[in-house]
Each structure stands twice: as C-alpha cells, then as structure tokens.
Amino acid sequence: MARQTRASQVEELKSRIASLEAENVRLRDADASRIMTEKALLETRERFQTLFNNALELIYIHDFEGNFIDANDRALQLFGYTRSDLSATNLAHLLRREDLPRAMGATLEVLKKRASSVPIEFQARSRDGSWRWFEVSGVRLDQDGMPWGVLGIGRDVTDRKATEQALRESESRFRSMFDNSAELIYVYDLQGRFVDANERTVSTLGYAVTELVRIQLQDIVEQKDVPAVLEDIRVILESGSLAEPSTYRLRTKDGKLLTVEVSGVRLSWVGGTSVILSAARDISTTAGSI
After folding, report:
1. 259 phi, psi to nearest 5 deg
2. CA 48, chain centre distance (Å)
3. Residue 13 CA neighbour count, 13 Å, CB half
C-alpha cells in the first residue's frame, strides 16, 4: 500500500514537473515573441522617424484644436521655428484669420473620415513675417482605438502660385491688347476654323464671334486668294511665322471686299492646342488708289 502511495506521488510530481516545463516553454516563447514584436516596433518607429525628419515635404502633427505637437526639420526650417517652440504654437499663429474656419473644417473632416478627401491650399506665415503658399492633406492618428491628432503632409507651392499669378496677369494683358487693338486680330486652328476674334474684326467683318467660330477662314477669303491663304498656313506650320506680310481679300458679311495685309504666327492656345494668330490691316483705300 505504501509503495502504491509513493508511486502515485511520483507520478503526480512528474506530471507537475511536466506542466511546469510546458509553462516555462510557453513563457519563453511568449517572451521571445514579445521581444521580437518590440524590436519590430522599435525598427518601425526608427524608420518612421528617419522618414519624418528627412522628407522633402513638410510633415507635422497637431491635435484637434490646432496645437502643434511635432514637426519635421523641413517644416521647422521653412517656418523658422525650433522644436521647442512647437508646444506654444497653434494653427492660428500661422494662418490668415479668414482661413481659420476652412482649416478647422479640414481638421474635422480628418477626424470624421480618417483622411482629407482632397488637398487644400493655404497661405501660412513664417516667423519672420513672410507668407508662403502650401498644399496640404492630413490623416488621423489613433492610439488604442481613440483619435488623438492629425498627421499633416504639405509641400511649398509658392513658386507655382507665383507662376500662375504671372500667367494670369500675362493673359490679362494679352486679352486687353487683343480686344483693344486697332488691327483685325483673329485666331484659327490648323484647318482654318475660327477660334476667337477681337472687337475690331467683329465690327469690320460684320460677324459676331459666335458666327465666326462656326465657319472657316477660307469661307470669307475671296475665292481667287484661297490658295495663297492655304500656302500661308503651310509656311506658318513649318517655320512658326510668316517672313513677310501677305495680301489678300476678305469678304464681309454684307458682301463687301476688303484688301488686307496679314501677318501670322503659330502659338499654343487653351489646352495646349496649336493655333495660328493673325493680325490684319485694312489697306483697301491704299490698294484702291494704286
């Protein structure tokens, strides 16, 4: 009986030892898994921090009230702040007053939808008082399932905006000269279809612009002069312009013939379309007196 008791005790002890060894293995595996997870997380954080600090774009983090939490070196350099300044800096310090509602609206969109639907443009003020244009988008940052901030990514588009403004001003000047020129100025495509015309052309030929864009240059050129017009188009396409002005006759809407001296150049129009711009001077009186 004593032997059976001892044998039972031994078996129970072996079972407990086996259970302890199994638990020890499980704990070692769990510990190894935890260590691997922590290592992977650390490596991910290091990669993110490297990308964060060395990106050419502006990257910054702020809370849902617009208080800055962090920013990469590019952002700090452009705005003239140090990292220690961030805790006392809010979006309101950087943006124009009239843009703040739009900025907070964009922040609320990120909070609700997790990311910006489209990039938005703002002017922001650097510490030295200068203003620059930025195009930015954002994504929501969560921790333990709870939103806590916005990761913003932006790029400086000041040069692009300046170019766009210069282009608008150039187009405005061109349009002013186009509309107010004393000469007939008209634009047509490579098949001779009218694209646009100035007021002088409209008043001289008697056609409204809406009528001109439904016809071709060849339709208002005297039939005998059409081959010369087609040759001018060929030369302009090949060389970009006419070396010397050409002379031919245009027929007005009421049937009157005008003798005009015409120059032309090829240029890029809306959407990059190649067109020909011609400037014509009415020399009917001069030609008739020769």
Report:
1. -90, 125
2. 26
3. 6
Name every residue whose Cβ is closer than 8 Å to that of residue 143 and which is 6 or more positions away in sequence.
none
Helix, strand, coil % in the chain, rounded to nearest 5: 50, 30, 20
Instruction: Quote the CA–CA distance of 154 and 141 in Å, as a whole number.
Output: 16
Neighbours of 61 (CB within 10 A): 19
Residues of the chain with pLDDT under 70: 1-56, 286-290
Q: pLDDT value at position 52?
A: 59
- What residues does 250 pair with on adjacent strands? 221, 258
* CA distances, 91 to each of 104, 149, 219, 260 (Å): 9, 13, 61, 62
Residue 274 is inside which H or E element, if any? Answer: strand 274-282
Residue 154 phi/psi, 5-degree rounding, is -140, 165
Strands 146-156 and 274-282: unpaired
- Beta strands of 68-217 (E only): which ranges? 68-71, 120-125, 131-143, 146-156, 184-189, 194-197
What letter represents residue 280's amino acid?
A
Query: Do 152 and 59 meet the contact criterion of CB atoms below 8 Å apart?
Result: yes
CA torsion angle for 182, 187, 188, 189 (degrees, to 10)?
160
pLDDT, position 211: 94
3-state DSSP call for residue 214? coil
Residues 6+ apart with CB under 8 A from 34: none
pLDDT value at residue 143? 87
